[in-house]
Design brief:
With 420 residues, the protein is of the alpha+beta class. The chain has helices spanning 8-19, 29-35, 51-57, 108-113, 136-142, 151-157, 160-172, 178-187, 196-208, 212-218, 220-226, 233-251, 258-269, 275-284, 289-303, 313-324, 328-338, 344-359, 373-378, 384-398, 406-419, and strands at residues 24-27, 44-47, 62-67, 72-77, 80-86, 88-90, 102-104, 123-125, 129-131, 144-145, 175-176. Among the domains are: 1-139, Beta Polymerase, domain 2; 367-419, Serum Albumin, Chain A, Domain 1 (Orthogonal Bundle), CATH 1.10.246. Helix content is 54%, strand content 10%. The strands form three sheets. A seven-stranded mixed sheet has the order 3-4-5-2-1-8-9. The termini are far apart. Bound molecules: adenosine-5'-triphosphate and magnesium ion (MG).
Amino acid sequence: MNNFYIPAPVLFALERLHAAGYHAYVVGGCVRDFLMGRTPGDYDVTTSAKPEQTLDVFADCRVVETGLQHGTVTLVRDGMNIEITTYRVDGVYLDGRHPENVTFTDDLAEDLCRRDFTVNAMAYSPDSGVIDYHDGMRNMAERIISCVGSAEKRFSEDGLRILRALRFSSVLDFTPDDECDAGVRKLAPLLDKISRERIYVELTKLLGGPAAPRILRKYPDIIARILPGLDETSAEKTAERIERMRHFLSEHEMSPEKKDADALHYALLFADTDAKLCRRLMQSLKPSRDELNGVESVQKFGNAAEILAGNSPVYEVKLLMKAGGDGFPRKVAVYKYSVGLLDAETAAEVIRTAEDLRESGACVRLSDLRVTGSDLMSLGFAGPKIGLVLNTLLDRVMREELENDRDVLLCAAEKLASQN
Ligand code: ATP
Ligand code: MG
């Protein structure tokens, strides 16, 4: 395991702690990801040093006291945030989510016991190699999500772990083992107590995972449980739609940005719900305003039968660019294809058209227009009329009835003025 790659700032943290006489390991997701050949998102360090001792060790470095009572100090170094957490034992869980208290320990084994799944409960240091007390490596080879200890006990302590089991199954393309599966099904009601923000984070990751369709089909009741109002067939339909979407994206060698992919996943999940329920359910997950808009706008234009119906495709693509930016027609086309409102050929044509329009710098926004509000003021227009005339001119340019040329537009504006 000599070739375990650890970025220099993380190695620095481990070495500093060792030099000061403490034990320190990278732990959790980064060990799992490395062993699976995936690129770790972040590196967490677990150490025998108590939080104040960690602060002392890094006294000359930039550290943030992220959660001292939970034992976490964040070292900021070379653009990396490294969470360094003291070996910890969680106290009793009374609220179904948080331990009443945490106690620090000198024993790595105890710290690994508090972690959710065996594949998340491994530690590594260059000196010791991989520490794996819970058969994480074997479960990884079997592609299994298995709780550390009794599944029922672990889910009862913290209901979020139920959704995390499905999220890791989706992202890693694993399967919950029988005990984990039984625990998920039996204790699903505990999800009602979990904060919506945390549900949102896990659900978003679940929907984006390579095995999302399989997990959605296997656990439709869990999806309906966390999104009350959505019926159980939604998960199955979403699975199909996500499969169609991914097939289309790979055929056309497209890989949307994460935020666009997330918006599409939620739009597909709520494709059969009316706009009101979609908004209520999305809002219940406490998304940012941008995230909410992203989902709602794809749905609004995607479900509008007249949009991209083939009557005047270039103009409609321009309307979409005007409404949601250059990449928006692509999102709407992918959505429409995935829910079966557009055939693959037309969807591809929309995407090509949008690309051509973008490259040719087509005029689709007021700011692209070669006249401005002050030009119109000099022609005698005032107040809200200015906006109206600008929009009329823009629409005619988008329909190719007028050239986007200053003189042409001023002349057209004058005509409009004389008509009133
Ligand atoms: P990702 O790559 O998505 O960040 P991760 O495994 O790093 O995956 P995190 O949510 O960042 O997941 O948590 C880091 C580690 O902390 C986990 O690997 C696990 O060991 C532990 N952990 C996190 N949340 C819980 C929880 N609710 N219960 C028990 N252990 C947890
Ligand atoms: Mg992580």
